[in-house]
Write a structure and sequence with these properties.
The chain folds into two domains: 1-53; 55-351, 4-Layer Sandwich (Metallo-beta-lactamase, Chain A). Helix 4 runs parallel beside helix 5 (151-173), helix 7 (261-273) packs antiparallel against helix 8 and helix 9 (293-302) packs across helix 10 (320-332). It has ten helices and 14 strands. The chain is of the alpha/beta class. The strands form two sheets. It has a seven-stranded mixed sheet. It has a seven-stranded mixed sheet with strand order 7-8-9-10-11-12-13.
Length: 354
């Protein structure tokens, strides 16, 4: 083969290679663009479907957003969402609650109200993010935070913290995209001295706050959500009390904080054995203000609670076998209703019209 012919073949092969690689790159770019566009459209459709499902007026949907107390770093802290008659009500907002809500595709822009049971950090740490992210996600209505005396200070503080962020975003994107009208939440306090008070009424949905017992913390309240003959009770952090028992009577769902005293005692003894007196003392003290599984089970059974979802485990357990041993099995020995060993994302549906 002549040298010139060989050179021409090499050049042609190089050109063919460049064209082949170019086509792959071009196809990859087109495919990537298509996948990105398709992914956005699919996510949008999915979010619309999820939103429609949660806001369905034919049922009450309760989502355990966060189920941990203050000492479980791998689980979101206490927060419960209730969807009822097209309304999105959130009870408490512990650390990581907002991230969980977005992971579970809860429609943050539709959030109507937040209710605080008390002011422990594991119940309010993410309130600022809930307020701000609902606004950033498109909330175009006022957001009211209900709670006992002291709520105004907390809400106004978060408003101040996020004020600059809201102004930056409005300056960047414009008033039509980020209207400052809805940037702040409003506090609606009720008198912490009251034993019981209706705090929310809208389109047949009634929310009542009732005093609970979480010594030495004050104020501290639970909530009852009622609609169309159905009742959901949010215990907050409390020992079993007469008020809790009365409101839990014939409840369609009780979302209940829970502790296993035997487990906590074992942890206390172990911490003392290894010389960690601080954690040992904490384990000793927390038995004063959370209910044991035996008390929870007995109350729920006596009050004919139809469904009970456990939350705010004190402490949470890392594996299912331990969950069964310390929480599920002791309660099931006494309680005959439908039991949910709640975890972040647990959903309980209560049909209407039954």
């Amino acid at each position: 083969m002549k040298k010139s012919t060989k050179t021409i073949l090499i050049v042609l092969l190089v050109i063919a290679g460049i064209l082949f690689v170019g086509k792959i790159v071009f196809d990859h770019v087109i495919a990537s663009d298509y996948m990105i566009s398709r992914g956005i459209k699919q996510r949008n459709r999915r979010n619309d479907e999820v939103k429609e499902n949660f806001l369905n007026k034919d049922k009450i949907t309760v989502v355990l957003v966060g189920t941990a107390g203050p000492m479980s770093p791998d689980i979101a802290q206490n927060s419960t969402a209730v969807f009822v008659n097209g309304q999105f009500l959130l009870f408490d907002a512990g650390d990581y609650a907002q991230k969980r809500m977005e992971q579970f595709n809860l429609p943050g822009e539709s959030l109507d109200a937040v209710f605080l049971t008390h002011f422990h950090n594991d119940h309010i740490a993410d309130l600022g993010e809930v307020m701000q992210r609902s606004y950033m996600l498109g909330r175009e209505k006022d957001l009211v935070v209900y709670g006992p005396t002291g709520t105004e200070d907390i809400v106004s503080s978060f408003n101040r913290i996020y004020a600059a962020d809201s102004e930056y975003r409005t300056a960047h994107h414009g008033e039509e995209v980020m209207p400052l009208e809805y940037q702040f939440a409003t506090a609606q306090e009720f008198d912490a001295k009251l034993e019981e008070v209706v705090v929310y009424k809208k389109d047949g949905v009634v929310v009542t706050a009732f005093k609970t017992y979480h010594p030495p913390i004050e104020p501290v309240f639970g909530y009852v959500v009622e609609y169309d003959g159905k009742k959901v009770v949010i215990s907050g952090d409390t020992l079993v009390t007469d008020a809790l028992s009365r409101h839990a009577n014939n409840a369609d769902l009780l979302v209940m904080d829970v502790m296993n005293y035997d487990l906590v005692t074992l942890m206390e003894e172990t911490f003392r054995e290894i010389g960690d007196d601080q954690l040992a003392q904490i384990m000793y003290d927390i038995r004063e203000y959370h209910p044991d599984v035996a008390d929870v089970a007995s109350m729920a059974e006596k009050q004919n609670v139809k469904r009970m979802a456990l939350t705010h485990y004190a402490p949470a357990t890392p594996i299912q076998s331990m969950m069964d041993r310390f929480y599920v099995n002791p309660i099931k020995k006494v309680y005959s209703g439908e039991l949910y060993a709640g975890s972040d994302g647990t959903i309980v549906v209560i049909p209407l019209g039954e």
